[in-house]
Amino acid sequence: MSDRRVDRVERPRDEGMYVSRIGEDKKEKQKYSQLPADKDKKLLLATFFSYLKKMFDTFSPSKKIAGNVVDIHGMIEHLRAFKNSLEKLGKQDLSNSSEYATELSDRWSLILDDFDTVEIMRRKEAKKTTDFREMMDAIKNYPPESEHRFGYYLLQHAGKDWLPFPFIEILEKLHRDHLENEKSSTLTQWFSLIDQVIENLKQGLPFKV
Q: Residue 179 is part of which domain span?
């Protein structure tokens, strides 16, 4: 957890593009005004689990277990959403899209919070958090030779008001490498790590998701 806190430093004045929020806010309103069917289903499912947690908190003597089940399900959905965002980058060069950068940053922030929760839930089972930590380290420390890496810009919410050129270059490199050699690309390696974390989390659920 200390790694995450250390990352929260004052953002330097990286050169980049400053983003107008007027157009972005309009896009956000349009995006959520007509949700596709699959997003409707996910929203309904999330609502169901929220009510399920409240019900267990009120009536069940095992409310801690019920709460953990709901938390784990949410973590799995966050990981799947982040992987989906990375898959879009593999197929299309989105390096200059402030909206896409914001999406990545927001979803990464949720995963950081989830890791904190996992460490608390499984503090007596350190081995179960190893894959989660490995996945996070691989993503946030890319590329290893850079002063400010992928995780730094994600944590600084690149894309909301500012899209720095180093971050654009990282996204472009990830996309290009995936196109040139998909099987061994950095994105493919991340997909595998994310899938492994999801499988580990599923072991804590009494049902398939």
A: 36-202
